[in-house]
Amino acid sequence: MLAGSRHETTVWAVQPVDVRRPSTGVRTAEMVCDSCGDVIEVRVSSAEIARRHRMRWLALTIAELSLTALAAAMTIRSVEADFSSRSTGGLGPQTYFWTLTTSLLTAGGSLLFRQWKREDGVRGPGDDWRTFLYRGRSSNQHNLLPPA
Fold it and tell me: Do 92 and 78 touch, CB atoms closer than 8 A?
């Protein structure tokens, strides 16, 4: 922190995973965390497996964004129906439902997109393929970078 300032900058102490990516399958190895000094176990997937994981996240993202577009169209249709009838005196419950649905689907799409962008085929302590948003949790406490 600079003298006389109230601004503090945090820099991540990232460390590379010094495990060669296997040509097939998954390689498990132990390494020492530079941040905490613990011995941690990492699993590094082959480039093909990592690519398949990325494609899975991309397919889920595209499917979810398609649902978002459909929900947005239904929201617009519901708003138009409410304003054309003018008998309800405002927006009806269907409009609120579709607006909420569109908002939730948009948030879900951004989370899936985040997973697609961050998939690198490296799993650290506590990471599991069933853990939805594994980065920012378990292995990120060790600030692991994927192998080159």
Answer: yes
Cβ-based neighbours of 101, under 8 Å, separated by 6 or more = 71, 74, 75
Contacts of 5-11 spanning 24+ positions with Cβ under 8 A: none
Report the sign of the C-alpha dihedral through residues 34, 39, 41, 44, in that order.
positive
Strand-pair partners of 32: 39
pTM over 0.90: no
**Residue whose entry in the numeric block shows the structure tokens 């600079």:** 2
Q: Can you tell me whether residue 123 is helix, strand or coil?
A: strand
Is pLDDT at 79 greater than 90 in this prediction?
no
Q: DSSP class of residue 130?
A: T
For residues 64 and 105, give the distance between their C-alpha atoms in angstroms, rounded to a whole number: 7
Buried b (16+ CB within 10 A) or exposed e, 10-22: eeeeeeebebebb
What type of residue sits at position 48? E
More confident residue, 3 or 22: 22
